[in-house]
Specification:
Blueprint lengths: L5 H4 L13 H4 L3 H22 L1 H9 L21 H6 L15 E5 L7 E5 L1 H18 L6 E4 L7 H13 L2 E4 L5 H11 L3 E4 L1 H14 L10 E5 L5 H11 L2 E8 L4 E7 L6 E3 L4 E6 L13 E7 L10 E7 L1 E2 L11 E2 L4 E2 L4 E3 L2 E3 L1 H8 L5 E12 L2 E10 L8 H16 L4 E5 L14 E3 L4
Parallel strand pairs: 3-4, 3-5, 5-6, 6-7, 18-21, 19-20
Antiparallel strand pairs: 1-2, 7-8, 8-9, 9-14, 10-11, 11-12, 12-15, 13-14, 16-17, 18-19
Helix pairs in contact: 3-4, 6-7, 8-9, 9-10, 11-12
The structure holds 5'-O-[hydroxy(phenylacetyl)phosphoryl]adenosine.
The site of 5'-O-[hydroxy(phenylacetyl)phosphoryl]adenosine has 21 residues, from helix 7, strand 7, strand 8 and strand 12.
Length: 447
Amino acid sequence: MGATTPAEVGLPPSRGARYYFEPQREALPRERLAALQAKRLRATVRNAYANVPFHRARLDAAFVEPEEIRHVDDVRHLPFTFKTDLRDNYPFGLFARPRNGLARLHASSGTTGKPTVVGYTDNDLRTWADLMARSLACAGARPGDLVHNAYGYGLFTGGLGAHYGAERLGATVVPMSGGSTERQIALITDFGARVLCATPSYALAIADVAEHLGIDLRQSALEIGLFGAEPWSEAMRQEIELRLGLTAVDIYGLSEIMGPGVACECEERAGLHGWEDHFLFEVIDPESNAPVPDGQAGELVITTLTKEALPMLRYRTRDITRVTRAPCGCGRTHLRILRITGRSDDMLIIRGVNVYPSQVEAVLVGTPHIAPHYQLVVERRGSLDHMTVEVEARRGVGPDNFDGIARDVAHHIKSMIGLTAEVVVKKPDEIPRSQGKAVRVRDLRPK
Ligand code: DLL
């Protein structure tokens, strides 16, 4: 599928004005979007049934004939696919194309067991670049911009995903990857990047190092940050915006479905447009598997509609969110996914209290004297789970104040989340910084 270029639709890529990378597709009336989804869903189910023995067996076991899937709502008859299915069929078992028909592989490192391997045909890579370009434009990037890409290159989809999308948009991309933070800062300032792509935690690490070096990135050419790959809060957004002097935009994706660019905020920043011409989004109750109404929280389930190499039927993302189909001020018709608040498998149960790291983060970020870096350490003490929240003092806050700050933070956590946690205040820079996804939880409980 060829992208609609700005030149084709006669739109000048002027800054400030609204700009769409694929205007017709992004503003498709919802009825036409549904018809397109139905057609593509049928093709996806046919592809999965004909070419992936795993899906054929699952569909047969559920007594679903591919021909019975006609409408978008019929997706509910399809069986779910789980991350474990990818692992169990390692490495290429869920691919609908032979290995020599694939243009690229990516893989997640996976903390336990085998990595998750995903594959792309040439067409899949083209679609990905288009959707990533669409996302960049949606976030406010424009052809001709300089995009500094600090997402990790390699098997992680962040680096190459953002890279090819930026090129497709017509931007100049600096393929920096993560790490060498001082060098990142020098190149951001020397080259004059307008757009920064990074995980939100790494963006803060960049801010820390810059401040340490006495470099004020607020004076740099940076105007927009595309931050994603891990949960982050509104408070964190404010902190990043304040310290880097840019507009921080949320971008979502996952390798099993494609990579970055599955959904992205527009300039309204009121939810992330999920690209419905390529993906079918559902929100379900993770316990009962029943659909939940728009506006209510549940697990995001995604079916791919155009993927050739790795068609995914009702993939259980484990990401907890809400969706809205209300019209958006930007004119795009695609639904909006609200901020991902956490993953159902990230949920900790501490003495009967269900807690997501993002809830603790929401309490910490914005608390005076505390830097926005933290780790939750979970241990078993006797027969009880115990959580220590390690936080970091802001520069200039003396150790004499640490006990008082710890008491305050513990009190806030108790009153906001209902959780009794020990709080330990560490000196500046003592909490490890990430170059990619931050490690927020150290679970030391015996397995
Ligand atoms: O993290 C792809 C990506 C790269 C997205 C760069 C955005 C930017 P995975 O490594 O497969 O892929 O991890 C996917 O990360 O299921 C979520 O749990 C989490 N995640 C991704 N984006 C966000 C976000 C990439 N904006 C997993 N907010 C997903 C919260 C996110 N969580």
